[in-house]
Amino acid sequence: MPAVNRITLIVCASLCLLVLGACKSAQPAKGPAGPPVVPVSVAKATQESVPTELRVVGTVEASAIVQIKSQISGQLLRVSFTEGQNVANGDLLFEIDPRPYEEALRQAEANVARDRAQITQLEATLARDAAQAKYNQSDAERYAELAKAGVVSRSQSDQAKTGADVARESARATQAGIASAKAALDADISAVGSAQLNLNYCQIRSPLSGRTGNLLVHAGNLVKANDVPLVVIHRVSPIFVNFNVPEQHLAAVRRLSANRRLGVSVFAQDDPTRAASGTLSVIDNTVDTATGTIHLKATFDNQDGVLWPGQFVTSVLTLDTIQGATVVPAEAVQAGQQGQFIYVVGQDNKVAVRAVTAGRAFGKKMVIEKGIAPGDTVVTDGQLRLFPGAQVQLVDPAKLDAGKS
User: Fold this and answer.
1) Partners of residue 300 on adjacent β-strands
2) Which of 29, 237, 379, 391 has the most CB atoms around its CB within 10 Å?
3) Whose CA is closest to 315, among 272, 266, 275, 261?
């Protein structure tokens, strides 16, 4: 390329750069940007009737616990239930070898039959002895009259009298034998009852309706009377929940429970949405001085088996109801250096800080005793970016959560 053309291109490029620079310097400078609009979700403060509740942790307890033991000794022949099975009152649980007790029953029954036969024999003997004694007594009286008349000797009269006395005492001895035989009969009848009872004990039945635990002695083992438990049964319907409340609530609990049954609700920790309802049944007779609490017990039907012995639950005792309380969502209440506060949205969509006095919480709501009036619009989400006077934009909570994620 000729040198003249190269010089021309360079001059043209320089002129273009100067024009561009002049255009940029001629643009007006931007002013400072305004404060950003903060997206928040809000809710209205409402006026509601709020139940006065005491919320504490409680433990579930079976209403009855029975250790099933054998009342006789013998070999355990069979188990008639499955571990963890629900059983009804009177259901057969275990069977012990009945043969030794059947033999004992037959022997006792044979002794009763022998006693009855002996009594029959002695009664016949008594009838004979009584007749003989009556005859001898008549004979002795006749000889006595003849002796007075001098017909027979005195010796013959005394002999007849002695025969009468012997016959009478023989009848009395037979009578005593009958009494002894009847006493033996009563003892043997009692032995029959005992043998029958032991035979009945060979079948071990459930004394209550409940749920069986682990099998502790298996079939084939020898068991002893009143030895180790064979299985433990828990009655789970009804069922108890034990919990403690601070002693300052004792007066209110006693006063209210005197007029009506106080309701108690419990929530399982693994499923807080499913509640069981019951009533307060026991107020302990002393305050625990170590913890400053009073022990309470509530009863639940538990027909659906929600509650399980040993389970930890959240217990809610309802005492009274506050009428016309100001309520906001619990997430609206914030903690600051000066105490609790809430961001309130005005008609111009700007927020102001309100110091509040928060009351008790129930569910996902909180009672506000001071600082908020029913109808106020409070911020429930997005508070981290807020400051007094901040401009806000009301958005749906689901969209706000989506923006965070």
Assistant:
1) 239
2) 379
3) 266
Q: What is the mean pLDDT of each run of 10 residues along the chain (405 residues)?
A: 49 50 47 72 89 88 96 95 94 96 95 92 84 80 76 76 82 87 92 95 95 95 94 96 93 89 87 86 94 95 91 89 88 90 92 90 85 92 89 76 53
- Residue 18 carries which side chain, given as an amino acid letter? L
What helix, strand, coil percent values describe the chain, rounded to 5?
A: 35, 40, 25
Cis peptide, bond prior to residue 238, ω within 30 of zero:
yes
The model carries a pTM of: 0.65
- Alpha-carbon distance of 195 to 109, in angstroms, equals 9
Write the single-letter amino acid at 260.
R
Q: For the chain, count helices (H), then strands (E).
A: 5, 20
Distance CA 279, CA 258 (A): 13
């250096």: which residue's tokens? 337
Residue where the block lists tokens 């275990």 = 94
DSSP-derived pairing of the beta strands 392-394 and 38-44:
parallel
Peptide bond into 51 cis (omega under 30): no
Q: In sequence order, which residues have a C-beta less than 8 Å from that of residue 141 and are 6 or more positions away?
A: none
| Per-residue CA distances from 176 to 123, 188, 223, 276 (Å) | 11, 18, 45, 72
Q: Which amino acid is at 245?
A: V
- Give the C-alpha separation, 142 to 161, whole Å: 10
CA distance linking residue 327 with residue 344, whole number of Å: 14
Angle at 35 between CA 340 and CA 353, to 5 degrees: 15
Q: Which of 257, 237, 389 is nearest to 309 (CA)?
A: 237
Which tokens hold the place of 307?
A: 């509650």
To 5 degrees, how large is the angle CA 376–CA 326–CA 260? 160
Residue 142: CA count within 13 A, CB half-sphere: 9
Torsion of CA 266, 269, 271, 272, to 10 degrees: 60
